[in-house]
Amino acid sequence: MSFDVGAVPFNPDGWGPPETPAGPLLVKQDGAAHPANIPFAPFSRSEKLGRVADWTRNPNFSANASRSAGGTRDAVFDFALDESSALSGAAADDSSFRLVDGKPPPRPKFGPRWRFQQRPQLPQRRDEEVEARKREAEKERARRDRLYNMNRRSYASGPFSAGFRRDTSNQKSSVDIQPEWTMLDQIPFSTFSKLSFAVPDPPEDLLICGALEVYDRNFDRVNPKNERRLERFKSRNFFKITTTDDPVIRRLAADDKATVFATDAILSALMCAPRSVSSWDIVIQRVGNKLFFDKRDGSQLDLLSVNETSQDPLPEAKEDINSAYSLAMEATYINQNFSQQVLVRDGFKVTFDEPNPFASEGEEVASVAYRYRRWKLDENTHLVARCEVHSVTEVKGQQTFMTLNALNEFDPKYSGVDWRQKLETQRGAVLATELKNNANKLAKWTAQALLAGADLMKLGYVSRVHTRDHFNHVILSVIGYKLKDFAAQINLNTSNMWGIVKSIVDLCMKLNEGKYVLVKDPVKPQVRVYEVPADAFENEYVEEPLPEEEQVQPPAEKDATANAMDAAAEAEANAAAGAAEGEKDADASEV
């Protein structure tokens, strides 16, 4: 394409276009002659020269602007309507002119200044405030996470579940792990919560041994204002016999009545394992095609834990009366005596198929009946367990089995609830506190009662006479619960309980013949399975005896020193009670 310059007029008088154009190239605008089709604007020598032509401009916008201005000039040379150009006309200057008000805003006549004034902020100041808000948001998020983790530790599965898991880094294992032991498997508690298994109901009763006394209904009227002194039953014997030492279980195993044998205490420890915090262990023996679940002599399963799932840690010194070991001994002592005191002691007993299999002739034993019951786990596996019931009562003309257990209060500052003040008015709050502090113990009691086929469970609330006296106690109240309702209240799922037992049985059935031990880790929520030598736990572990003041045995087996200590303790308690009564009388006389 060729570029047509067009006709260029000649100026004989000098440079630039001639004053009087010879052709139609010149047009008159604003009283002056200008070249046609070429934009022209006056400028002074002090102004900077801009661009002559702008080929990057929007031609549509420029063409529209040119047409609206009434001209037909070329768009790339037209800067008359460009506001950014210094060569625009007076009309363009007027249209782009805006008055800026530099006066400060009027000050309000009332109210704080910060509420009405919003001064413009510098960009740096605004960035600093944004960063400060981000830091505050991070702090708030960290605080919420900390509270969430704390609550998660406090209630692993709700207040009626595993409860609070306090710092267990300083706790020891219930059994010393020997270097020659071989760890076969470790099972976290998180897998236990997903298990479920339904056993045929009801189980089969193979045999019932022992004798039961009737529950005394007068204890249902005991309250903090009408408390009862807890008695000591030193002449009655209590037995904690393991599975393989039970002559009845040996006889049933010889008759091939089942393939798995255990006791209610061992099964309840397995069923409620996810709620446990302290360490415990169970000895497992595989003999032929049979499986025996045992406990060691002096095992933790023989003692009742106190404040195991509590938020407040107990004193670590073993000799302290409020240490975990001392409280476990005290709770076991209270539970045994309470189960015998709330009975009608008139000589009448309900007898069963066989007498107590562990008592010798003429020996006085506690009121207890052993029910040997069988459950079907699968076509080839049956489980037989020895279950205990403590008393019998009559409900609607029928005899009903019941279990008797006692909760003990040692110091209200640990639980935060004073039983003497709250048991009558806020009984639910007291029970909720115990469910939080002793979730594992209450769950095991409920599981044992369900295994034994009891319909009722009586809970006694026993407190110390004085917070520093761990020898003398009083019964503040006795409350009965229907077993199925109470199990639902504490969120105890029977299908999950049997699912845990079934999984452990299936695991042990795959092992070779020998001896194994199942240990609950003292720190982590998990259990480990170790293979141990055949002679393990036979001579190394001896049961630690109860203190002289707390032993429950016939009087003939106690020496004069023990009797003297008992007499001194009773005299000291009576003196303290007399002093307290004297202070009350003095205060009354002053009033």
pLDDT < 50 stretches: 62-73, 83-90, 114-118, 154-165, 541-569, 579-591
Number of strands: 17
Instruction: Please give the count of helices.
Output: 15
Tell me the distance between the termini. 127 Å
Arithmetic mean pLDDT: 78
Structural class: alpha+beta
Global Rg:
46 Å
Helix coverage percent? 25-40%
Tell me the β content: 15-25%
Largest sheet: 10 strands, mixed
Give the strand line-up of the largest sheet: 3-17-16-7-8-6-11-10-4-9
- What would the principal axes of the Cα set say about the shape? elongated
Describe it:
There is one protein chain. The chain has 15 helices and 17 strands. The longest helix has 32 residues, at 123-154. The strands form 3 sheets. A 10-stranded mixed β-sheet has the order 3-17-16-7-8-6-11-10-4-9. The model is unreliable at 62-73, 83-90, 114-118, 154-165, 541-569 and 579-591 (pLDDT under 50). It has helices spanning 59-69, 90-96, 113-116, 123-154, 189-192, 247-254, 264-271, 324-341, 412-415, 419-422, 427-437, 439-452, 483-489, 494-509, 560-590, and strands at residues 26-29, 32-35, 182-188, 204-212, 228-229, 260-263, 281-287, 290-294, 350-351, 368-376, 382-389, 391-395, 398-409, 456-466, 469-482, 514-520, 526-532. The radius of gyration is 46 Å and the shape is elongated. It is α+β, with helices and mostly antiparallel strands and 591 residues long. Keywords: Cytoplasm, Initiation factor, Protein biosynthesis, RNA-binding. Belongs to the eIF-3 subunit D family. One of its GO terms (molecular function) is translation initiation factor activity. This is Eukaryotic translation initiation factor 3 subunit D.
